[in-house]
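Rotation project, supervised by the postdoc (A.L.). Task for the rotation student: set up a whole-complex structure prediction and record inputs and outputs verbatim in this book. Inputs entered:
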Amino acid sequence: MNQGAKLKIGIVGGTGYTGVELLRLLVQHPNVELTAVTSRSEAGQDVHALYPNLRGHLDLQFSQPDLDNLSQCDLVFFATPNGVAMKLVPGLLQAGVRVVDLAADFRLKDPSLWQQWYGMPHACEDVLEQAVYGLPEMNRSQIAEAKIVANPGCYPTAVQLGFLPLLERGLIDPMHLIADAKSGVSGAGREAKLGSLLCEASESFKAYGVSGHRHLPEISQGLAEVMGAPVGLTFIPHLTPMIRGIHATLYGRLQGAAADLQALFESRFKDEPFVDVMPAGSAPETRSVKGSNQCRIAVHVPQGGDTVVVLSVIDNLVKGAAGQAIQNMNIMCGLPESAGLNQVALMP
Amino acid sequence: MNQGAKLKIGIVGGTGYTGVELLRLLVQHPNVELTAVTSRSEAGQDVHALYPNLRGHLDLQFSQPDLDNLSQCDLVFFATPNGVAMKLVPGLLQAGVRVVDLAADFRLKDPSLWQQWYGMPHACEDVLEQAVYGLPEMNRSQIAEAKIVANPGCYPTAVQLGFLPLLERGLIDPMHLIADAKSGVSGAGREAKLGSLLCEASESFKAYGVSGHRHLPEISQGLAEVMGAPVGLTFIPHLTPMIRGIHATLYGRLQGAAADLQALFESRFKDEPFVDVMPAGSAPETRSVKGSNQCRIAVHVPQGGDTVVVLSVIDNLVKGAAGQAIQNMNIMCGLPESAGLNQVALMP
Amino acid sequence: MNQGAKLKIGIVGGTGYTGVELLRLLVQHPNVELTAVTSRSEAGQDVHALYPNLRGHLDLQFSQPDLDNLSQCDLVFFATPNGVAMKLVPGLLQAGVRVVDLAADFRLKDPSLWQQWYGMPHACEDVLEQAVYGLPEMNRSQIAEAKIVANPGCYPTAVQLGFLPLLERGLIDPMHLIADAKSGVSGAGREAKLGSLLCEASESFKAYGVSGHRHLPEISQGLAEVMGAPVGLTFIPHLTPMIRGIHATLYGRLQGAAADLQALFESRFKDEPFVDVMPAGSAPETRSVKGSNQCRIAVHVPQGGDTVVVLSVIDNLVKGAAGQAIQNMNIMCGLPESAGLNQVALMP
Amino acid sequence: MNQGAKLKIGIVGGTGYTGVELLRLLVQHPNVELTAVTSRSEAGQDVHALYPNLRGHLDLQFSQPDLDNLSQCDLVFFATPNGVAMKLVPGLLQAGVRVVDLAADFRLKDPSLWQQWYGMPHACEDVLEQAVYGLPEMNRSQIAEAKIVANPGCYPTAVQLGFLPLLERGLIDPMHLIADAKSGVSGAGREAKLGSLLCEASESFKAYGVSGHRHLPEISQGLAEVMGAPVGLTFIPHLTPMIRGIHATLYGRLQGAAADLQALFESRFKDEPFVDVMPAGSAPETRSVKGSNQCRIAVHVPQGGDTVVVLSVIDNLVKGAAGQAIQNMNIMCGLPESAGLNQVALMP
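Outputs recorded:
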C-alpha cells in the first residue's frame, strides 16, 4: 500500500473484550485509521463512555452495523458472537472488503462439523471454502493472499504452537495427545453470566467442558493437517482465577530416535516474531505475556522419561484473539508483521 | 478413652499456615484441650496476636519447644519445616507421646530416597520404620495402631485418592500416569518469599518443579504400594492465583475390559466420610471444599476414548494438611473419625 | 423453649449469597431443624446441587414459597430481593410465625422514605410499625420481644457500631460524620450483573453510589435515634476486589472535653459477644472476620489532632447479614445468643 | 536537543517494581537510549532474565552502580530504596548529569523533617535546596530548569491533584482535610515481606500507617505551598487486594460562596495531558488507568451538602512513579511532554 495512506478499518461488535482489545491495539497502530465500530445495543454512544481507558485516544461513536458504511473499509474485523459473521461476510467480500473473523464461523473446514458443535447450519459454505485459518506460524503465505481469515481460538493457538514442532517431526504418538489447558476468565467474554462473577470464579479452580469443548475439533483439525492424518486428543480446559492468560500444559509420548528438543523448538521458531522459546529448564508465566502478542514456550522431558511436556503461554485476548487478528491484518495488507504489536507485557 | 476427659494436645511450630489451621480446627474440637503451641521466634507472645481470627477462641501463649513440657501431651502435631520433627520425635515416642508429623520427615520409607530429595541424612531411621503413612483411605487400620504417623503431602493426597480405584483394579497402564496438579499459593507456606508475593503470584499462572518436585517420590511410593510394583508417573505442579485449594487432573490409559468407572468410584469410597464422588458428568470446584476436610472427585472418559480423566479437589490446608492430621489423630485415639471435622466449606 | 425440641426454621429465597450463608450456619446450629427452603426458580431441585459445599450436610429440596407450608415453621428468614417480604410477612405473622427479614423492607421506619429510596410504596405499613431494627448492640431487649425483625444492612452494621460509642457520649460533631466504606463484591448479591464479573471487578477499585446509596437513610435513621436528633452523614461506599468483607473507615470531629476513647470503646462493648475492640494502635483486617460473626473495631486519633478515626470490619455475609440474622433469631427464641455462631474466621 | 540524537539514560536500582516499570516505558520511548541499568545484587545478569516481559525488547545486563559509567548519561533515574540517591546524586550533578529521584530523598524541603520521618540525617542539604518537586501540574516551569527533580510519592500525586483546584481557590477549610486512600500491593515494592504475600494481602482489606505514614508530611508540604500556610490533614492509607492502582477519596468542608466545581476542575486541568476530569456524576475505576500515565478525577457534592468529595485514581507505578518520572524527564530535556507516555490502559 501507499506508505502514507492509512488502512480504513471497521470493527463489527465492538463492545466485548476482544472488541475493546482490538481498539486498544488499533488506536496505537501507525498504519490504521478506525472508521467504524458497530454495536446494535450501544449505537450513538461514545466508545470511550463504555471503555474509559480509551478517553483521549478515540473520538468515535458506536454505529449500527451497516453494509454501506462498512463497505468503505479496507478491512473489517468481526468481534461478534458465533454465527453473526457468516451472515454479513459474503456481502462485504463482494464489496471488495477483506475480513478477519475473531469468532468461530470460519474455523472448521467441514460445515457438518460446524453444525454439530455450534448447533446451527453454516450460512455460507462457499465462503467457508476460501477462508484461511489464521495461524501465521502455520499458514503465513496463504494468509497473505486471503480475503477472509478465520482467526484461531485462544486455546487452539496455545496448544497448536506447542505441539507443532513435535508433530511436524513425528516425534510423538499422534493418537494420544493430552492438552491440559488453563484460561483466565476473560475467555468467557463480557457477558453477565453467573459463572463469571468474581464471587463464583475467584478463589477457586475447576475444569469445564470435560466431555467436549468447541475448541477440541478446531485443534484436532489443525494438528491433523500437520500430520496429514487424524490425531487423538484429550483436551481438558480449566477456569483459572485471573483475568487474562492461557497456560497449556501439553503431554506427548515420545517415539522414534532421541532428538534435541530444545534445539528443535528454537530452530522451528527462530524467525517467528511472536513465538519465544524459553531457555532450557524454564517455566513461562502467563503474566510475562500480559497485554503482549507473544507466545512463550518451554519444552521438558521430566526425569529423562518417555513423556515430553510442553508449556505454552499466551494472553488469550492478544495472541489468542485481537493481537493475532492484527498480525493477520498486517500480513494480508503487506505491512510489517509486527506493526502496532510491540507492546511490552505489563509486569507486575 | 474416658468419655469426659479431653486429649492433651501440643503443636510444635504453630506459626505457619498449617499451624494456624490446626489451631482453627482444634479450638472447636469437642475432645481436645490445647496445652502447648511452640514457636522459637514467638515464644511468650499471645497466639491470637499473630492470628487475630483466634481472638476470643484461644488464650494461650507460644512457648519454647521443650521436651518436658511436650511430654505431658497425649499427642503432638509437628507443623515444622522439613527436618525438624525427626530430631524431636524419638524423645517424644520414648515418653509415650504419640505424634502426627505434617512435614515430610517420615513420608518416604527409603532413607536414601529421603536424603536424595531433601538434601540431608535421615536422623532416626529406626523410627522411620515404624512410621505409618497417614492416608486413612489406604491405611486406616495401621493408623489406628500407630505411634507415629506421617501425614501425607497436599498433592499426594489429591493425586493418590484419584488414582486409587483405577490402580487397585488394574484398569490403567501404571507406567504412564500423568498428574497435572494446580495449587493455591498457601501451599508454599507462610514464608517471605518473592515468588509468593501477591504482585508476583496473582493474575498469573505457571508450572514449577517440572524437572522434579518432592511430592513425586511420595506419590510414586504410595501408588507402587497399591500396585505391588513400581509405577511411572509424570507429575507437573502449577501455581494458581488463589489462597487455598488443589485441583489434580489425572490422566490414565485404559486397559483391559471396559468397566463402569462411576460405579467403581462410588463403591470404593461409599464408606469414606471425607471422599465425595460427584455425580457423573460433574466437575468439582476447589471452592466447594474451602475450609473443609472433603476430597471431591469426578471421573470422566471424554469422547468415549481410551483415556480416563479424574478430577480431584481438596483444600490443601485441610484434607491436604491440618484436617487430615486431625482425622489421623481421631483414628489413633479411638475418637469418631469425623470429630471436629464437620465444617461446611465457605462458599462464596 | 423445650430444651430438647428444635426450632422449625424456613428460609424464603434460598438461592442468593445470604441464603446459602444462612444454610451454612443453620445446618450446624444445635437448636435448629431446617424444614423449608424456598425458591421459585429452583423448586424441586436438591439444595446441594446448587451449593455443593452443602453435600452431606443437608438433604432438602427447594420448594415453592407457600404460606401453608411456611406456617408450620417457628421462624422464617426472608433472604429475598427488596419488596418481596412485605407482601408475605403479614400472613405469616397472623399464623403466629416470627420473621427475620434480611432485605430492606422493614428497615426504614418512615414509609415515605422507603418509597423514595426503594421506588415502591410500602405494602404493610401497620406491620412496619411493629418491626424492630435488629442491631442487638442497640436494641437487644426489643428484639427479644419482637415478632418481626428487620435485619440491618451490611454497611449500616459496620458504620453504626463504629460511631455508636462516640455519639452516645456526644464526643463528636453529629452534623459532619464521614463514613468511607469498602465492600467485597458479594455485597452485590448472586446476580448475573456486568459490574460483578471477575473481569470487571478484580484488579480494580472504585466508589459507587456517591450521590446517594440506599444504606444512607438507614444509617442516618439509626444514628439519629441514638442522638435523639438528626445527624449529617457523608457516606461513600467503594467496591473492593475481594469476595467477602466490609471495612468502614469513620471520621468525626471531636468536640467537648478530651476522653480516653480506647477505654470508652472497650467499656461500651465489653459484654458484647460479637464486637471485639482491638488493642490500641491496631488496624483490623477484614480477613480476621472472614466467615465469622465478629465485628472488630479500632479507634485512633492520628497525630493527636481533633479528628477521630474508627476502623470497623465485618464479614458482610455474616455479621452483615446471615450471622446477625441468626443472632437475632437466638435472642427472639430465648437461645444462647452465640448458639451456632462460634465459627473461627478462615485465615489465610 | 538534536532531533535525531537520543538521550543516554541510566537507571540506578533497576530490580524493583518502579525500576522494571521505567524499563517497560523507556524501551518504547522514541527519544531514549538505555545505557546502564545498575543493581549490586544482579550485576552481570541479563535484565530480561529477571523480567521476562522484556525478552526481545532489551539486550542489556545489570551493572554495578559506578560513577564513571553513569557520568556518561544525560540523565539518571534513581529507583533505589530511600537514602541511596542522596549519597550518589552530588557526584552526578557535578559531572553534569541530570537526575530524577523516584525515592523520597529530595521530596521534603526541611532536612529535619526528613530525618524525623526517615530516621537518618540528610546527606546533601545543599543539593536538597536546589531540588524541584516533580509534580508537573504544579511546578512545570521549575522542572524544566531543574538539575535534580524529586519525583512525588504515589499517594501524594493522587491526593494533591485532587485537592489542588479547591485549595487554590480557597473553597474548602484547609485545616480539616481528609484523604482516605487505597493502594494496590505493588506500592509496598518488590520485597519479600510477609504482609505482601498473596496469602496475607488478597481477600482482605486493612488500613495501615494510621498513626502517621511517610507520605503525610509530603502531602502537607505540597498543599501548604499552594495555600501559603500550613494545612491540617488526616491521611489514612489502606492496603487493597490488587496489584496496581491508587484510589484517593478526598473530603473537604466547603466554605465561602457556592462555585461550579465541575467547571472549576475542567478548567484547571484543561491543558494537562495527564489529568482527565471525568463527566459530572462519574466514579473513575483504578483499572481505567492501569499501565497508563493518566490521573482520572471526579468531583461530587453528595446530597447538595457542605462536604465536597473528590475521587482521584492513578496507576501507582506509572503516574505515581515511573511514568511521572519520564514526564519530568521529557520536560527537563525539552521533549514533548507526552513522548513515550501514550499507552492505553489495559482493560480488562
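Student's summary: The two ends of chain C are 39 Å apart (CA to CA).
Supervisor addendum: Chain C touches chain B through 36 residues (CB under 8 Å).
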